[in-house]
Amino acid sequence: MGARREGRELALQALYALDLNPVGIRIGLSLFWESQRAPQAIREFTEQLVIGVVDNRKEIDTLIEEKSKNWSLGRMSKVDLNILRLATFELIHRQDIPRNVTINEGIEIAKKFGTEESPAFINGILDEIAASVPEKPF
């Protein structure tokens, strides 16, 4: 598994933990790292994603809700929602990650952590979000 994939998977787990125990980002990350091991570069990438999602959550959630027809955020599984949040953050705020990489990573992580329906669900919403975000310069 690549370093960034590992970082995304750890970020998903950290965001899920913060949903279950909303203690604040710094305390939440500190508690999370007590039970996880990762090289420094992966930890840094993970924290960039988690902090980015938390700092931009209102914007991210609004966009997800706009693009997810017939699905409110409350009806989505926490795993699917946090995969969508991570990928939406990357699509909007990470100019260094191509959109197709973000979408593919979201789908692959959904296959591992979500339900049987999660990959198609994630793909459909991320395609809608990606279509509304300006193309990244590469």
Automatic annotation (TrEMBL):
One of its GO terms (molecular function) is RNA binding. Residues 7-130 form the NusB/RsmB/TIM44 domain. Involved in transcription antitermination. Required for transcription of ribosomal RNA (rRNA) genes. Binds specifically to the boxA antiterminator sequence of the ribosomal RNA (rrn) operons. Keywords: RNA-binding, Transcription, Transcription antitermination, Transcription regulation. It comes from Geoanaerobacter pelophilus. The keyword Translocase does not apply. GO terms for biological process: DNA-templated transcription termination; transcription antitermination. GO terms for cellular component: cytosol. It comes from the Bacteria. This is Transcription antitermination protein NusB.
